[in-house]
């Protein structure tokens, strides 16, 4: 899909909405106060009626059953992480037993590195990039230090040539004989570049290297096929496109060929079901994905995901991805036709196969423009140094909202409205 197949009128945007097969899902999400137009679903998705119902369901079971919640429905909540994981697996076309909902993204990276990184004299380096979200590096660096090694001796960084995109051939060239493990983002959180996971995985495996991906900025917006790609692992959060709520419990995928590998961070919920409540002091590791759990699951941070997965099951990832690509292509088209004269540009790529679910709008006054947008009932996202991230989400954003956003961006620039706002950054930008 190119961004030349559209029309720059409001009537055209409305016609796209009239033909939108996903339009009915918008009413399943709660609107914000003052009917703000939300374009920040790649940071935190909106609350849905389905998520709320699922959370209240767990509350009711707790109220009525107390400790017996663990036995309700033949141990449904005791195995909640695996039950939700099996449903999540459908979104990335993985086997139902290869995904579990547990912990948070950073702790899951610690778990993955502690489990998969077994440095030897010949293979000890960890290959990363310089554009990934920093929590990935924080966790990896911590794991290196815990082994008494020096970060600069272990980490191998593939640097971006332009600060916006990664060159896949440079990544492949860096997969040398001393590399033990690779962790890369599926979609770059600034530029929305979508990497070719299949190509990278095949090249890593050809060299005997373990490889995995951070799906935080792709899951729920991009179709993945892990039965085809066969990476070794993946980690992600569930509160962005998946709208499972702030701080929602995260997800782990582990290829079943690695089941039985000694877990790096052991905890009692990673113990075998058969002996977990015998409370032995010797850890008897579960034989499947359950081993990657540590402490008791947080029911209230998991339940909203169950509700949103009902919506995803009804909508289908194929339709969600198709509309997401149309929304972002339409946004880039309008930027080209209505905003370029006012100093706006974008760094997201036009090719569908190279773009995630958001558009990285660039302007030298980006931060103050974001403040102006919020005062005008539009919710964007800012990233240093000059990027306004705009994520129209297929399940609850409309083409008309994209049109109105672009019109507002033009007015802000025409009148240089940003002049009234401070350059001082708030804690959360």
UniProtKB/TrEMBL annotation:
Reactions mediated catalytically: L-kynurenine + H2O = anthranilate + L-alanine + H(+); 3-hydroxy-L-kynurenine + H2O = 3-hydroxyanthranilate + L-alanine + H(+)
Metabolic or biological pathway, per its Swiss-Prot or TrEMBL entry: Amino-acid degradation; L-kynurenine degradation; L-alanine and anthranilate from L-kynurenine: step 1/1; Cofactor biosynthesis; NAD(+) biosynthesis; quinolinate from L-kynurenine: step 2/3
Cellular component GO terms, alphabetical: cytoplasm
Sample GO molecular function, one term: pyridoxal phosphate binding
Keyword annotations: Hydrolase, Pyridine nucleotide biosynthesis, Pyridoxal phosphate
GO BP, one annotated term: NAD+ biosynthetic process
Hydrolase found in the keyword field: yes
InterPro entries: Kynureninase, PyrdxlP-dep_Trfase, PyrdxlP-dep_Trfase_major, PyrdxlP-dep_Trfase_small
Cofactor list: pyridoxal 5'-phosphate
Keyword Hydrolase: yes
Enzyme nomenclature, EC number: 3.7.1.3
Positions where N6-(pyridoxal phosphate)lysine occurs in the chain: 240
Residues annotated for pyridoxal 5'-phosphate binding in this entry: 105-106, 133-136, 214, 217, 239, 268, 296
HAMAP family associated with the record: Kynureninase
Assembly with partners or alone: Homodimer.
Its biological purpose: Catalyzes the cleavage of L-kynurenine (L-Kyn) and L-3-hydroxykynurenine (L-3OHKyn) into anthranilic acid (AA) and 3-hydroxyanthranilic acid (3-OHAA), respectively.
Family in the record: Belongs to the kynureninase family.
The name this protein goes by in its record: Kynureninase
Organism in which the protein naturally occurs: Myroides albus
